[in-house]
Amino acid sequence: MSPLRWLALLPFPAILIGAVVFNQVTPFIAGLPLLFAWLLLWIVLTSAIMALVYFTDPANRTRDGEPKA
Known about the structure:
mainly alpha
């Protein structure tokens, strides 16, 4: 397993630990309570991490080096 694929494991503990640590209502970020903002952030970051892993994986390349369609 390439080292970059280990990034795919990062969102799981971040969401679980964040739900315990940031379970507060008073600080608001963009009009959302802190926990909701944390979860929304990790939903977006998870998509970015998965895209990064997908595009850097050599198994997703054709013989001429172009990405698969």
